């Protein structure tokens, strides 16, 4: 769960986001190693008193600084491509939800259920209940079951938007006249927050996204008697 004074994102709540975090740590370690090596070479070069004005080139050094970057790029590219393919996988989704971006709110339609659709507006600061987060809470939450693959169809009614929930590892552009799709799978129950990530106008920062993940039985009860409120 998010908490006050939090400086970073919420913890990963989906397998894809966990993979992205692991890849981030993997790439960051490589960056640290490269930076340390370059800093050592710079210090060694500017501090040494050894010079040789007759050296024009070094075949060995050129081979090393050609092959080593290629190996590093392969070490970064392979896990990156693996995650890209994992993010594109949408196998037999249990539920399909259509998210439409508007200026400036989101609307949701559960395509597998009749008459289950609602708009989600940001809760004004003066109407927040204790424990709710300013600029992040909506009057209606998108409710989904845990441990179930969910397909999200994303589009927009007016201008470009972007449906993004960092803890789920999801970010998909909402383009008018185009239907994009992405997938998510929630690992555990909780409430997860996101925001529109495309500058879409004056109130761009006031159209948050809230996903509430619940056990399957609770979702079935909610979908039967959909009280669409936060």
UniProtKB/TrEMBL annotation:
Domain Cytochrome oxidase subunit II transmembrane region profile: from-to ranges: 1-91
A single cellular component GO annotation: mitochondrial inner membrane
Molecular-function annotations in GO: copper ion binding; cytochrome-c oxidase activity; oxidoreductase activity
Ranges in a coiled coil: none
Alphabetized CDD domains for the sequence: CcO_II_C
Every Cytochrome oxidase subunit II copper A binding domain range: 92-225
Cofactor(s) this protein cannot do without: Cu cation
Pfam family, one: COX2
Protein's membrane topology: Multi-pass membrane protein
UniProtKB keywords: Copper, Electron transport, Magnesium, Membrane, Metal-binding, Mitochondrion, Mitochondrion inner membrane, Respiratory chain, Translocase, Transmembrane, Transmembrane helix, Transport
Transmembrane residue ranges: 27-51, 63-85
InterPro entries linked: CcO_II, CcO_II-like_C, CcO_II_C, Copper_CuA, Cupredoxin, Cyt_c_oxidase_su2, Cyt_c_oxidase_su2_TM_dom, Cyt_c_oxidase_su2_TM_sf
Places the protein is found: Mitochondrion inner membrane
Free-text cofactor note: Binds a copper A center.
Keyword RNA-binding: no
Main function: Component of the cytochrome c oxidase, the last enzyme in the mitochondrial electron transport chain which drives oxidative phosphorylation. The respiratory chain contains 3 multisubunit complexes succinate dehydrogenase (complex II, CII), ubiquinol-cytochrome c oxidoreductase (cytochrome b-c1 complex, complex III, CIII) and cytochrome c oxidase (complex IV, CIV), that cooperate to transfer electrons derived from NADH and succinate to molecular oxygen, creating an electrochemical gradient over the inner membrane that drives transmembrane transport and the ATP synthase.
Family: Belongs to the cytochrome c oxidase subunit 2 family.
The protein's name: Cytochrome c oxidase subunit 2
